[in-house]
## 1
Amino acid sequence: MIWNKNKECMSRDELRDLQGKRLHKLVDLVYHNTPFYREKMQELDLLPDDIRTIDDIVKLPFTTKADLRDNYPMGLVAAPMTEIVRIHASSGTTGNPTIVGYTYRDLEIWKEVTARALTAYGVTRGDIVSVGYGYGLFTGGLGAHYGVEHLGATVLPTSTGNTEKHIRLLRDLGVTGLACTPSYALYLAEALNKQGLTGADLKLRIGAFGAEPWTENMRREIEERLGIQAYNIYGLSEIMGPGVAYECGCKNGSHIAEDHFYPEIINPETGEVLPLGQEGELVLTTLTKTGMPLLRYRTKDLTTLMPGTCDCGRTSVRFTRILGRSDDMLIIRGINVFPSQVEAVILEIPEIAPCYMLVVDRKNNLDTLEVQVELRPDSFSDDMGSMLALKRKLSDRLKSVLSISAEVKLVEPNSLPRSEGKSTRVIDKRVLA
Amino acid sequence: MTIKQLSVFLENKSGRINEVTKVLGENGINMQAFSMAETTDFGILRLIVSDVDKAVEVLRAKNFAVVLTDVVCICCPNVAGALSKILEKLAAHQIFIEYMYAFAQGDQANIVIRPSNLEECVRLLAEEDCHILDRKQLQ
């Protein structure tokens, strides 16, 4: 099923024409309303009228997460505060979170693209969809929520946390759709089995999974254990949230809602735009957003764009699975974590040496984060209570900065590797094969 | 009449205690008593050794986090009720025992106590005619 045949199945020529017109309007908007972009364009000697067609996009500057940080909190917002109706926040690379402001119109677009995604998975009116993404500053919960409502299906705003209650409601209400992280779906399957139940005891038939990388093997396992069809949903808060791209029944790449988000693939080292079909970093331009529109935002997600019309009839371009990241961001339980955030917390605590190791693992289908830190020799105390208090201080601080809990492990002075390079600071034991 | 106890921070991984005992042994430092307090990921090894200053020096050179703590070492008869009598006295005077460890052999028992109020503890023990060990007696 297709929610918006007009847009999702548009001819490529028509689409490019529409994208060009929208880009021109967008550039005009940011040039006049975002000093950051005006300055960048002036540096490049560019005026809004220099951007006429979608091919002109290569003339425009990139936007990075660092730009969002440097303009914290609302420097990149193009609309006046009287037009901003919602704010979301995600992890920044350092202490500052990334703030995104949405206009009412942005939320309308978001609902639209999420409804497209859900329809592509086969969700219709009459379905009950449990949204097990976190509700709050994270875009996952509210993003999926409004999409389900907009479609006309029934939303069950389960959020994260109480798995026992979740299972009970899935059973008692005959819930047919599930939106959550793929690892939570597996955790749920595990919890079902512990209660002596299987997917056959539920009416679930469709799953919309995203916010973290997953694999074909995980898809097979989720589908078998829950007895459902599992689909990928892609999004990032800087651009919108879930719904930026979505799989269809063909499960062969995620379709980008191209009339709203223009994709490019670049060489992450040089910034050069790569020909269709080559692997590189996904760059997205928000063609229609008015709250915090972004030009050529570097997602740091590595993927490949797939040419050609899909068997489902959609003409919008697809990307393959996300193959990795071109930065050191980790996605843990669906939450973005940057090693630099951990570093910032450690620097605040004088009893700890400025040296750490992050160990990410997946135990019982749930991601775990262990933060190993070195005790400073002169901070060692014979009093066990004060040592445990130090551990707690660090884990409380990490929890408030990262939004996920981390297991702190105090290790002996000088025991962590000292070599440079980000790879040595992170051990990711999760096997995504 | 207090004794300097050596505390060493140790990660919970195999071979770490051995590493400490090896370093001490190689430097001719004898251990008279020790105990291990542990949590899930680290522990505090507490030791009474023959040459505490040298022990600190050689362990620090090997990157161990070490700290010295004053404790009281007493010797009491190795008979039922002997320790209880002492502890009763301390409790009656609100002396809180943070930790203690002991070893009994023959007709004697040696006990290491880390009390909340060191001076008061020593005074009370002396009042009780308790045998408080000094460094020399520990050799």
## 2
Amino acid sequence: MSEGFHRIFSTFFDPGMIVQALPEVLTVGLPNTLLLSLFASAIGIALGLLVAAGLLSGYTSVRLPCRGYVDILRGLPHILTVYLIGQGLPLAGLAIFGGNTYGYAALAIGLIESAYFAEIFRAGFQSVERGQVEAARSTGMTRLQTMRHIIIPQGARRVLPPLTGQFILVIKATSLVYLLGLTASQREMFAIAQDAAINNANLSPLTAAGLVYLALTIPTTYAVNAWDRRIRGARSTHAVEGD
Amino acid sequence: MSEMPERRQTGAHHGTSVRFDRVNKSFGRVAVLRDIVLEAPGGVTTCIVGPSGSGKSTLLRCTNLLERPESGRILLGEIEITAAGANVDAIRTRVGMVFQHFHLFSHLSVLDNVSLALRKVRRMEREQAEDVARAKLAAVALGGLERRRPSDLSGGQQQRVAIARALAMEPEVMLFDEATSALDPELVKDVLGVMRDLATAGMTMIVVTHEMRFAREVAGQVVFIDQGRILELGPPDEFFDRPRHPRLRHFLEKVL
Amino acid sequence: MIWSRALLFFSFALATSLQVNAAVADSPETNVAGELRVAYRTDDKPVSFLQDGKPTGFLIELVDDISRRLGLRVTYVSTTFAAMVPAVQNHQLDTAAFGVLVTPKRKAVVDFTTPVGYGQAQLVSRRNAPLAAIEGADGKTVAVTTASALIPLLQKIAPKVTIKEFPNIASSTNALIAAQVDGLFTGNATAGHLVEQHPELTATQTVESGINALPVAKDRPKLLAAMNQALASAMKDGTFTRLFVKWNGSAMAIPQRLFSDYPGMPQPAPDAAHAAR
């Protein structure tokens, strides 16, 4: 019985292995994970804003392609899209990032995430009261000025909690970059842990990386939830005052 | 209030008029406005009364093109605003609108609420725009509240900020859509006071209201709309003291 | 009544499970009695790959032969290179049917049979930008399968070459063709196959990396001994030689060291290759 327990323990939680793996996970893997998450999110947010505007367009010829884009990218497994774009673009002669794996990975993950970001933005923009828009247009502000000075700043407040939640998903999605090939210094947390796990034939390095992922994601999740509650609370009291 | 005397110089009956020429509007299959013919003369306050759902708000919203009539023409002075290719944004700078629920920009300070359009539409420098905004806020007796958020103000204060926001653009016509309906009774007076001052200063105003006393005292003409049609129109004393249409008589019995 | 029936059922189940241990008497203990569970790779042609839905290849047929000699049924389970050693160590699988380089770290967690080959990794590059050798290819990037034992070796002989890790040969080949890397290292049999499949690629330098052998869990000494014995017979009676020629053709020679490891192993007949084709 105790031998069985010991084996389970040493398979996942070998303290020596965890301690041995942590420095590289933290000094090489963590910065790479964050770097890739930020790049992918930047691409995702920029594209997501555009697509969200398209989703809200009055023109069917704009709205339908945007809808299709969102449905397709949300409907495919991440791993498939990362392979198709990350390996497919250079194979097809579109080596837009040269030999830089991160470029393709950030683009692939960014494209996937842009579909999710677009839906978040769409919901955020739609949550801005119609009256705010009418008031802005009544002063002579153009559609674009209203978007920029009223809808985006107001929508952004409501959108920030779900946006941050999505960022957590991006952090996790970046582990797929290993599919596209990484040099030693490019490896992010998962790749480093995977290598160490294989070389030592023990899963504890993966546990080490898992702990770092959790240290990133769990506090963020709770912070976002608290934040979201505060915004919702503020909105409902405000609504009572307004009426 | 400080800038009103200046307004007075333009004088009553010289302001911009609004004319509605056989205006029709429907939402889906429901006809909301039917063959509306009406002139709101320059420098005069036109009050529109009627039961809820009668189309009075829609008529107001057509006046700054928040709604588009299906047929008919609306003229602002000599300009046909319903013409194809009319510059909607430019027209709206000439027509100020005040809403029932204020619709102050909730993410901006009081000062920014009033100065935003000056900066973005009139392309004023921030400093100049804020000077104008301060003056407009002082004119509605809200000096000193510039840095507050709309949510920190009472309903009456919020509505006066909304009036200042509309006035900042120096409009030729002001539209009030049940501006006091959402206010607590004790706050109504301040807002009506500001509107009364504007009327006295010679602003062309179209006011959709349930405040019959205000209509009687301030309006140059009062219009009764029911089921999308104008059923009666006249100077206030005639309108209130000698109503002709039975539906108006019925309406007045209920509200007075 | 119900109780006695349940008891009957229980003792039957117990007996069946005890049989598992009883079976060990003649064939060596494996993770599932009477069965040899073997890791294979779907993409390592011609050594270990999937064709028409069935695992096939040089080492697959060799393991087939070994298990016949052991009286065990074979089940193949596809794994990545990376997942294999832990799977053998943890009794998910009994052994692997692809070239596993024997390294000190791996030897610390699993045992290995006697050699089935000598790792000869070959450098593959694009014909229009060929790399003759890894030495002197400073500043170039070379693809290697994740956690391959080649990585430390390459770092030693060519420290200024950048090594990029890929999860499998398919993705590193794509990267090479798309000029995302300048070369890739893989076993020489696979390299030969890649060059055949992709005329734009060329195979150059061969690097000898060490002993290739089949992994067995440390606590299965009987299985290891039985496999070694079966392997020795397959070497001696010419089975290995025949399979080697069948899968690698005549162009590739059986590593000389194997002949000294297994005295009496027959050389391929001069015309065997032609016969095999």
## 3
Amino acid sequence: MRISLRFVLSLAAVFGLSLPVAVRAQVTPERLDRAAAEPQNWLTYNGGYDSRRYSTLNQITPGNVKNLEQKWVLQDQVFGAWESNPLVVDGIMYVTERPNDVIALDAKTGRVFWLYRYTPSPDARVCCGANNRGVAILGDTLFMGTLDAHLIAIDAKTGRPLWNIAVADARLAYSITMAPLVVKDKVIVGVGGGEFGIRGFIAAYDGKTGKEAWRFNTIPGPGEPGHETWSGDDWMHGGASVWITGSFDPSLNLTYWGIGNPGPDWNPNQRPGDNLYSDSVVALDADSGALKWHFQFTPNDGYDYDAVQVPVLADLEWQGRPAKVMMWANRNGYFYVLDRVTGRFLLGEPFVKVNWASGLDPNGRPIQTPQPPGMPTWPGNQGGTNWYPPSFSPRTGLFYFSVWENYATIYRKEEQAYVPGRNFLGGGFTVAAPAPGAPTIGIGRRGPINNWTNEVGSGATVALDPRTGKRAWTFPQFDVTDAGMLTTASDLLFTGGREGYFYALDAKTGKELWKANLGGSIVMAPITYRIDGQQYVSVISGHTLVTFALRN
Amino acid sequence: MLAAGWFTLAAAPARAVAQVADHQYSTADIQTGSRLYGAQCALCHGQNGDGVAGVNLSRQQFRRASSDDDIRSTITTGVPAAGMPPFRLQPAELDGLVAFIRSGFDRDATPFVVGDAGRGKAVYDGKGACATCHRVAGRGARAAPDLSDVGAIRQPSALQRSLLEPSRAMLPINRPVRIVTREGRTIRGRRINEDTATVQLVDDGERLVSLSKSDIREIELGTTSGMPSFAGTLTGEELADLLAYLLSLKGQ
């Protein structure tokens, strides 16, 4: 063993190769804490616990980005939107595809090492996309939540399952679509199912055994603070899902999670009260799951404005003082800055047209202005933005995200009784259209012809100054966009959109520097990593994962 | 206002000719059907009418029924083998369900009258001169949208709106476009697709043209359709017949 290791090391010295797999370390909690210090890897869903999706890699620059070429592609073998975020660990990429497959591949060539295929129970019900958004890693173990609400530990080297536990009951329409968050020795997941009358929760499991360590109910039960914001039995099936991976601040030992909408979605009259902790961000102690603070963006929501966004953490100078803040562009059309130590509201500004509220009070609570029946509400059902991961660049100081402009919905409220496992929506909605019966925008692109057009709504990549909540620049797109963001230390912003263009923009100005037509919707954020001195950028478009690097 | 005008035009001849009374669908009937459908049918057939395999009620795709009476009888006798129970309903409720289905699940409940498709084809080819711009099954011009499957993709209310107020009913994608390129060339046509960087159109010579927006100096989208309104030129009966013909166009 020692001899072969020395042999390998000497080869590496002679040929200038990177360290071979055999001597690479496991992914320890310390490595996850300092993910930013290893930009060659992409170790967590959002590239690091602060969820900035900012990489210090700088080989690809505004000057040479035009020399990007496709290095390899991975074709998804499964039909359906592909919203997975790959991890890259020491040259190996781990990506999921529908419904719950995990693929390990060589991140340099795209050649596959192994494929693990899990078939969720036929009882699984997922409202708005039977997706999986990726895995988490700790040590040599990958963790995946499943559409039937299981959590599975998988050996990262063999692709064989190590343990498999039920997180919740799929027959009641609980599901897991997010990538788990690993903190220290624990794997943390939240459950989806808000459109089916679940009662949401976040739970932590021991990474070695799968034993539950703590659980936080996103709807407080009788006797718990916040329970008074529900009436009667509404809390038992009031939704408040957790769709998206949270963030973590090791210095405060707090994890942060965005909570989904209350149910039934469109009939707030049926569930009087603020409906905590729906449409909120909660700060939970990483070891115990105890609630440290919460902030609710949309009390008694009737618009499905769930707080399904990624909490982005940064330390900024705030009104002359250093501050630990959280930045949040919410589905309800407002951009927020919160003090992430206390949850105190610092700033809130609309970033798109808003008419469901006339403004925010000094505590950040919206002054709600419900529209008369039949009249459009801005922003529409899919929100001013949605789950697509934003980015924050400490170099430019700007916050980047996808927005939907001039897009409105007409809501219809109806009384609805809860039936276990069934849709629990309380009405419906139509998207405001320029001509009666004209095609409108929905979840996902419907084909290569844009016959809904920008008259129904259009997209944009936006850079916001978090100190003011105002736009620094706007890069308009003709169709709406569900793309996430990636920024780099060379001030590049990589993103895409439903039209299938993959863009490199100047992060300072929004100027388009390069684009490639990849032919399928880009509905996830790109990632970047480095192998053997070469920087790669990977993005999923339609059913294809495409990896670019500079021409050699 | 629009719907009322159409109804007045269409109602008189429909009442006069007894055999078309079966094909007259009022707002009240459609609304009755909509309520009943939500309560009794949606659980199995779905909000959009496509919950049962091989059946799409809002698009008039049935396993058995073809006439209005066929629909009535399927509802009243049920389809026990497929798990559909018989429904005991009042005649007015049956009329409502038929009207709601025939309207293509029109939640606005715009009234409409469907005449005779054979006579409607004569109007299409003759007085309406529709083939001057439109195309059906390979016959006619390409200046305006191809109508070969328009009966499968549009509600009756949308079709009659197009006949009466074409500019108001025009779908945004179909807007007439005038483009001046950087070289100074002017291109006119109908937009058929667009994205952030490019636009595609059928030009007035019926050629497919794709242009990069960076090559375009000026682009103007018209909001007025080139199609005339037939509100004043066709009788109510002719409009009902033309609607029947358009609804009969289901594509291949």
